[in-house]
Specification:
Radius of gyration: 19 Å
Oligomer: single chain
Distance between the termini: 12 Å
Structural class: alpha/beta
Bound molecules: adenine, zinc ion
Strand content: 5-15%
Number of strands: 8
Order of helices and strands: HEHHHEHHEHEHEHEHEHHEHHHH
Helix content: 40-55%
Length: about 350
């Protein structure tokens, strides 16, 4: 019998909620700043101010967008992608759906094509060298205008086959899903899959979740933990099989609790929660750490941790053939690990 840590480490894994800009570790940030001739407001990674410091969503987003300013060239986006893939390859991650925020770059004068070319090249290399399948999800920044989101969708048109879906992120306060109903409808008509953030404990969280599933018609909600507050909403998630991408370590920073007991309740209710790293360099934890926190804070059994991973592959947007293959490999792994008890 293996212990829980190695059970998690060796499990074949997928994640569906990771922002590629959130992979910028301080060392890489300094390296990119130096090669792009950008002055950072601190001298080295050893300066405490250079570390990421925040305690809610707006202060996190300030740090994130400040970090983004070192990303300028195609090579920067390639290196960012490869930094992620090489780290998670060591964690037995085999599949990722990756968010990127084009407006965070185009508004700084970086071309949409620069971002997508660099990320795409990393995807191709990750698949051939590391055996990791990944897909890109383009997020609209919800604190920008709906018009700006439409422009981003237009810029994506030449790259339609390189982007699997659209999402919505950034500051939720005062920026409900309904603000983006038209652009999501346009994206759906073009064949993009739909997801969006409903961050934890926001003003009108429950109402935003209803809008996302009823008015927008998303297949998944990113976070969406507050769905547990309404019995009718729980029923909708179960009946319509809407996935949830929960991010335990991110939650610790942003709402001071990993909300892993909520993950346990979602599993008990028959909902489809998954565990994800969100912005792993900023929140100091990749997939294995997030699963370990969910397991220990939520008091999850090995079978429940396995169910979280089954949910991730099931709710992924890969082809049915690949999905079945991933699920078969996971089930084989779980069967070989049967009898394991959390310690
Ligand atoms: N941007 C990056 N991570 C985010 C999150 N978890 N919520 C909202 N916007 C984000
Ligand atoms: Zn997120």
């Amino acid at each position: 019998m293996r212990d829980m840590a190695s059970f998690i480490e060796q499990m074949p894994k997928a994640e569906l909620h990771m922002h590629i800009e959130g992979v910028l570790e301080p060392e890489l940030k300094f390296e990119m700043a130096a090669r792009n001739g950008i002055e950072l407001p601190y001298d080295s990674v050893d300066d405490p101010a250079a570390m990421y410091d925040f305690d809610d969503l707006p202060t996190f987003l300030d740090a994130r967008y400040e970090g983004d300013t070192v990303l300028i060239t195609e090579a920067d986006f390639y290196d960012l992608g490869m930094a992620y893939y090489s780290t998670v390859a060591r964690e037995n991650l085999v599949y990722a759906e990756i968010f990127f925020d084009p407006q965070a770059h185009t508004t700084r004068g970086v071309e949409f094509s620069t971002v997508i070319e660099g990320l795409h090249r990393a995807q191709v290399d990750a698949e051939s060298r590391l055996g990791i399948e990944s897909h890109l999800i383009m997020c609209f920044l919800r604190d920008h205008s709906a018009e700006s989101a439409h422009q981003a969708l237009e810029q994506a048109a030449p790259y339609r086959d390189r982007i699997i879906g659209v999402g919505l992120d950034s500051d939720e306060q005062g920026n409900p899903p309904s603000k983006f109903a038209d652009v999501f409808a346009a994206a759906a008509a073009e064949g993009f899959r739909l997801t969006m953030h409903c961050d934890v404990d926001q003003e009108n969280s429950v109402n935003h979740i209803w809008q996302a599933i009823d008015d927008i018609g998303v297949e998944r909600i990113d976070h969406g933990v507050n769905a547990l507050e309404e019995r009718a909403l729980i029923g909708e998630f179960v009946n319509r099989r809407i996935g949830q991408t929960v991010c335990p370590i991110s939650n610790r920073y942003v709402v001071a609790d990993s909300r892993s007991r909520d993950i346990k309740q979602m599993l008990d209710e028959g909902m489809l929660p998954t565990v994800n790293s969100d912005d792993p360099a900023y929140f100091r934890g990749y997939m294995n750490d997030n699963l370990a926190v969910a397991q220990s804070d939520g008091g999850l059994t090995a079978a429940e941790v396995g169910q979280l991973m089954r949910n991730a592959f099931t709710m992924s947007w890969t082809t049915d053939t690949r999905k079945q293959a991933y699920l078969a490999a996971l089930d084989e792994y779980l069967a070989a690990s049967a009898g394991l008890d959390p310690d």
